[in-house]
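Methods — Computational structure assignment.
A single polypeptide chain was analysed. Its primary sequence is given first, followed by the predicted tertiary structure written as structure tokens.
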Amino acid sequence: MKLGYVRVSSKDQNERRQIDALIDAGVDINCIYIDKVSGKNFDRVQYKALLKAARPDDIIIVKSLDRFGRNYDEIRKQFKNITDQGIIINILDTPMLNTDQVFNGGLTMKFISDIILTVLGYVAEQERDNIHQRQKEGILSAKKSGIVFGRPTKINKDFSRIAEQVKSGELKTKEACEILKISRMTFYNNVKKMKN
């Protein structure tokens, strides 16, 4: 039986391109397992369900190796774990990694496939590191430009006046929070920001 695996990194990303490729490769739509989660490890609900469903001589089809995962050591471990059970893995974008060819191609084919898997696994993890680096640089650049991250503040224009009334003893903190419709923690955090 052909089983398909699809992974996108976030709920916002569209998995349709991968699904279409798997259907074109002969996978029934009901046999496609989809995770919307990072590829940093293999602790994924649908991936685990896929492995539970797979039997010897089944074929697991994935569009590309980076959809399978982005952790170099884990990719190699998962490939070995799956193929040791007699399950075939086909990577559509890299047919040289297709384990049915490796099984039938003898030692030379296995050697070539292992080299390619090593290189591509490294590239997949390196790309993950590059993505994180670009995110850090983007956030740093945005902060330098004055963009503020995190939840928007719940302070309104009356906050300073009411905070002064609390400071002078005219109001209690609880009363100020009720007027401003904020929690004590938010009140104290914003008083601290005003001092800085």
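Note: The chain has two domains: 2-141, 159-195.
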